[in-house]
Design brief:
The protein is α/β, with parallel strands linked by helices and 456 residues long. The protein is built from 17 helices and twelve strands. The N terminus is likely disordered.
């Protein structure tokens, strides 16, 4: 009798993913799209570049994905981004696409919501007035000796390995000086302070945490640099952008609204003048199932700009976020998957929980809650879209489990299947790029663009 080799669980899962994926018209995207699902090119675009956002996609996502947005040239059209982050879609609709639609963004993180609003308000800033305020603000050297009792209580500011005391003092001093500045300019300049904080520190944003810099060459440069010089360079770039866009300043492209609220429930304000069935187009990227807690990643900015002052406030914000990370214990929710997508989910969870320690054993609860959040948001999106309206979702897959046995979680396939079950037509399923990991390679480790259409 011939010995039949038993198929590995990961191979079985890949086969099941492939069978489910065959229901959709999956296509490979262009190199341009691979770049568009990353934020990098925004670092060279006016206003988009005002803060070095770690995550997100490019302002040219619509053209790169072949999305027709001509309907948003109508004054009565409505665009909505339920996870707007630093405001890329809202700003792209204004500067890059020149829509006339009402642009609405939701963002639960108060620093990111603030950042998005400052950028969206770029027309309000006069570069000549900005120059004058900067000179007055920095006329006296920034203090190097403000008492630690007046620093933010976040431990990062008190850790010598993360940032030097004189730099913390200077940051606190400039924030304090800005409290006397006219509000709209204060907000713009505070964005510059937030952008400068990482540049003068001894840490960097890396994935799900702040990492201490180990390169002596980089540390040597960071020790020499002065906050005032960094601020002048950043604020000068703001002035340059405002001057370069002077011809567009008087040509406002529709109104906008940015709400520091939950993008899963998408509660429309009563005075917005819109309701269910009014939204023309949505575009967004929800948090990926990759354990990144954006409250943690942007904690320095949250505390420095005084959006958070106490540990309890930090904890409460974590509890309100999309459940894509394990920083706090969330109530477990059932994603209500059925059929072979439920089979794929159970197979993936079983493989992950069986490969590692205590953290991996908890992964099933996190994944269940994550896809319950995806389901909630998609259901709300369906109700808000016009018949024939579309939702563009930029989504990334991830791999979990021990280093020797990484299990891919095909979030794009799960999300497309959930959208289909809610009544959406999956018009496009475009693989934007493969994700490369040092410890894992798999065809389902990728980022994708999903286009959902509410049937007419």
């Amino acid at each position: 009798m011939l010995f039949q080799k038993k198929m590995k669980p990961s191979r079985k899962l890949d086969n099941l993913y492939s069978n489910i994926q065959d229901r959709f018209n999956v296509v490979q995207g262009s190199p341009e799209l691979a770049e568009a699902v990353q934020f990098e090119s925004n670092r060279y675009r006016p206003v988009h570049r005002w803060f070095p956002f770690k995550e997100g996609f490019s302002a040219n996502i619509f053209t790169a994905a072949g999305i027709d947005t001509t309907g948003l040239s109508n004054d009565n059209a409505v665009f909505l981004d339920p996870f707007c982050g630093c405001g890329t879609t809202l700003l792209a609709g204004d500067i890059d696409c020149q829509w006339h639609a009402f642009r609405i963004g939701y963002e639960i993180n108060p620093f990111l919501s603030f950042l998005a609003e400052v950028k969206a308000n770029w027309r309000k800033y006069d570069p000549d007035k900005l120059t004058k305020i900067i000179e007055e603000l920095l006329a006296e050297p920034l203090s190097k000796s403000i008492s630690p009792a007046k620093w933010p209580s976040l431990s990062t500011f008190h850790n010598l390995a993360m940032i030097a005391p004189n730099k913390v003092s200077a940051l606190v001093d400039v924030v304090e000086r800005l409290k006397a500045v006219e509000n709209i300019y204060k907000d713009l300049l505070l964005v510059g302070v937030a952008a400068a904080a990482e540049r003068v520190s001894y840490h960097r944003k890396d994935g799900r945490a702040l990492r201490i810099i180990r390169s002596e060459q980089v540390l040597k440069q960071r020790r020499r640099i002065r906050l005032s010089s960094v601020l002048r360079n950043i604020w000068k770039s703001y002035e340059d952008d405002l001057r370069s866009l002077a011809q567009y300043r008087e040509k406002a492209n529709g109104k906008f609204l940015i709400l520091c609220q939950d993008g899963r429930s998408i509660e429309l304000p009563s005075d917005a003048g819109i309701g269910s069935g009014d939204v023309t187009l949505m575009a967004y990227s929800p948090p990926y199932l990759n354990h990144i807690d954006y409250t943690e990643v942007y904690k320095v900015e949250l505390w420095l700009l005084e959006f958070i002052k106490k540990k309890q406030e930090m904890l409460e914000l974590r509890k309100q976020t999309f459940r894509s990370h394990g920083s706090v214990k969330f109530d477990v929710r059932d994603p209500h998957l059925t059929g072979d997508i439920a089979e794929a989910f159970e197979m993936a969870i079983s493989a992950v929980t069986g490969t590692g320690g205590q953290w991996h054993k908890q992964f099933g609860n996190l994944a269940s809650t994550y896809f319950a959040d995806i389901t909630q948001s998609l259901g709300r999106q369906y109700l808000l879209l016009k018949p024939g309206g579309r939702a563009i979702c930029v989504i990334g897959n991830s791999a979990h489990g021990s280093k020797k046995n990484r299990i891919p979680i095909a979030t794009d396939i799960f999300t497309a299947t959930i959208a289909n079950s809610l009544g959406f037509q999956v018009e496009k399923f475009i693989i934007a790029r493969q994700l490369r990991r040092r410890d894992h390679s798999n065809q389902f480790l990728r980022e994708a663009i999903l286009v959902f259409r509410r049937p007419a």
